[in-house]
Structure formats: structure tokens, C-alpha cells
Design a protein that fits this description.
By secondary structure, the chain is α/β, with parallel strands linked by helices. The chain folds into 2 domains: 157 residues, 3-Layer(aba) Sandwich (Rossmann fold); 136 residues, Rossmann fold. Helix content is 38%, strand content 18%. It contains 8 helices and 11 strands. An 11-stranded mixed beta sheet has the order 1-4-3-2-5-6-11-10-7-8-9, with helices on both faces. The longest helix has 25 residues. 43% of the residues are buried. It binds adenosine-5'-diphosphate and magnesium ion. The site of magnesium ion (MG) has 7 residues, from loops.
Length: 311
């Protein structure tokens, strides 16, 4: 069953947005891919699915307010309604009988969707949309939400668009011991438990870019001892979650490699990879840490960016 809301005020939220799985719909194939994945996720979570299209009602961005032609506004909104109807039909095909709400909004897409994320339980976006530069791997709205969203954000990549969603592949999570990777662990354990698949917890302990090129690495370093210590640390980190999710088969993996490279490698065989917004780096102005950025742009499987409490 589909309900429709229309609101012209970006800050206004309908009561149904509370705790929904929200998808940004812009008429692209990428967004439809996100809708199908989100429909199945909403079903797993027992949550309503909310499809939001944000119309940009001004034909030009201008610092001064000029009134857009009425015909233009009408056409943009009509197009938005059409995209929402198409998305809603795709959701119903993926999960017949799912409760779907569509919402036509106006404003700047990233702003409106960030506002939505304050009450959503999960936000799902396509990696690309209709606009933008074709050479970008991930569009600006998807990047903005990954960095500034207030709930976990899943970005769906085109590489998986036409394939059957792999339902038995493991969930992979990156663990660096920070508070934000704890948020990723919680999200990943829940995802693995809901799907009944193993969870691969990857921890890497060589944050050095080009160790292979070093000629001066001391030969006396006891790498085996370091490896064992890191394995112990990962095990300790996982205890609380193993207790909480006894049904999840956990595969801890300690790798001597850079985190971005190791995680990308494991993303290749995963149905979902989960990271925190940031790791232990201190450049907080970037919004999204470098490992999370690498995965967002280069992983082929869906990427979930988890975060701690809403700010
Ligand atoms: N106007 C919009 N309304 C709702 N969702 C949007 C809108 N624009 C983009 N999105 C969402 O963000 C995803 C990525 O699009 P975007 O970042 O705009 O990429 P591009 O630069 O290729 O257009 C889309 O697949 C869709 O899920
Ligand atoms: Mg776009």
C-alpha cells in the first residue's frame, strides 16, 4: 500500500518519517537499485519504507530570490511524482505488500535528505544519480549524506545493479578499535544476524602507505609477536558482540596491510561492507575518514557508513 505526502517546506517532516528506512529517489537507475535493496531491508527490519524525491524548483541557482515560472515548477513536481510512482512500484515488486510512503519535497537535495536522516533509522541512496560528472564514481548527494547524515547511510553501487543480490555472502566490517568502529560493529552484527550469514571482522595493523618500498625497515621487528598481539586485541574487542549475538558466526581476520586496501579486497566477496564515518585520524573537518571514503568510492558491494549517536 502506498501513501503520498507532498510538502514544499524542506524542514517539515511527516509523522511517518519516524524510524523509517528512507530512500532518495531521483529517477536514476541507481536510485531504483537502492529502492529494491531498501525494500528488502525494510521488510527485515519490520520498518516502513519511505521514498523521497526532492525537487529543485528554481531553474537557476541565484543569490537573489527570483520567482521561477509556474509552468516550470508544475513540470518539475509532475516529474517528481512520476519518479516516486515508478520507485514505489519497484519496491512493491521487490516485496509485495510492503508499506510504502512517498514524499515529494522541494529544496536542495542534500539539505532535505540530511534533515530526513535525523529521524530515519536508515538512509539508502544510489551511488550515482541523474546529474553530475560522468567520471565521478559517487555523486555529490551520496557523498554529502555519507559524511553528514545523522543515521546510518547505505550507498548502492551500480556494479551490483543487474545481478541477483548475493544473499549468502558474508557481511564484512572494518574494525580499528575506535568508538566509531564500535558503531560499525553494532550495525554489522545486526545485519549478519538478520541475514543469517557469517560476519568477517577485518582488523589491519600496518597503517603505513608504502612499507614495501622501505629499505630501512629494521630486520629485528618481531612481526609474529605483533600479529599475535593484534589478534588478541581484536578478540577482546569482539567479546561483547559475540555475547550479544551468539547466533552470528564471526570470522576475525587480522591482516598486516593498509586498512583501505585490505577492506576493498574483502568487499569483493561480501554482500555488504560496514565502516564507521571516521577512524582514528584527527582531521575531523573532512567529515568522512579516508578509509571510509576509499570504500565509498571503490567498493562494488553496498557500503554502509555507521555512526554513533545523532548530533
Ligand atoms: N533530488 C533528489 N531527490 C532525492 N534523492 C536524490 C536526489 N538527488 C540525488 N538523490 C539520491 O542520491 C543518489 C546519488 O545521486 P547524486 O549524488 O546526485 O549523483 P549524481 O551527481 O550522479 O547526480 C541518487 O541515486 C539518489 O538516491
Ligand atoms: Mg544528482
Amino acid at each position: 500500500m502506498t501513501y503520498t505526502n507532498e510538502s514544499e517546506r524542506p524542514a517539515e517532516r511527516s509523522s511517518q518519517s519516524e524510524n523509517s528506512v528512507v530512500v532518495g529517489v531521483d529517477g536514476s537507475a541507481s536510485a531504483l537499485h537502492a529502492v529494491r535493496w531498501a525494500a528488502r531491508e525494510a521488510e527485515r527490519r519490520g520498518a516502513p519504507l519511505r521514498l523521497v524525491n526532492v525537487c529543485h524548483l528554481m531553474p537557476v541557482r541565484h543569490p537573489r530570490q527570483i520567482s521561477p515560472p509556474a509552468d516550470y515548477q508544475t513540470a518539475v513536481m509532475e516529474q517528481g511524482r512520476h519518479w516516486l510512482a515508478e520507485a514505489s512500484a519497484a519496491a512493491q515488486r521487490a516485496v509485495p505488500g510492503l508499506a510504502v510512503v512517498t514524499d515529494l519535497r522541494s529544496g536542495i537535495a542534500a539539505d532535505v535528505l540530511v534533515a530526513e536522516s535525523r529521524t530515519a533509522q536508515l538512509m539508502v541512496l544510489g551511488s550515482r544519480g541523474l546529474g553530475g560528472f560522468t567520471s565521478l564514481l559517487v555523486g555529490s548527494v551520496a557523498v554529502a549524506l555519507s559524511a553528514h547524515g545523522q543515521c546510518p547511510v547505505v550507498v548502492m553501487h551500480a556494479a551490483t545493479q543487474d545481478g541477483v543480490p548475493p544473499e549468502d555472502d558474508p557481511v564484512v566490517v572494518g574494525v580499528d578499535g575506535s568508538e566509531l568502529s564500535d558503531a560499525a560493529l553494532t550495525f554489522a552484527f545486526e545485519a549478519a544476524a538478520a541475514r543469517g550469514v557469517p560476519l568477517v571482522a577485518v582488523h589491519t595493523w600496518l597503517d603505513v602507505n608504502a612499507a614495501g618500498a622501505w629499505a630501512v625497515l629494521p630486520g629485528t621487528i618481531d612481526w609474529t609477536w605483533l600479529q599475535q598481539e593484534e589478534e588478541k586485541l581484536l578478540d577482546e574487542r569482539l567479546v561483547a558482540w559475540r555475547d550479544k549475538f551468539p547466533g552470528v558466526e564471526v570470522r576475525p581476520l587480522v591482516v598486516r596491510d593498509r586498512p583501505d586496501r585490505a577492506l576493498l579486497e574483502h568487499a569483493a566477496g561480501a554482500q555488504l561492507i560496514v565502516v564507521g564515518t571516521r577512524g582514528r585520524g584527527t582531521l575531523t573537518g573532512m567529515g568522512l575518514g579516508s578509509v571510509s571514503q576509499t570504500l565509498l568510492h571503490h567498493a562494488e558491494c553496498p557500503v554502509a557508513v555507521a555512526r554513533t549517536d545523532r548530533t
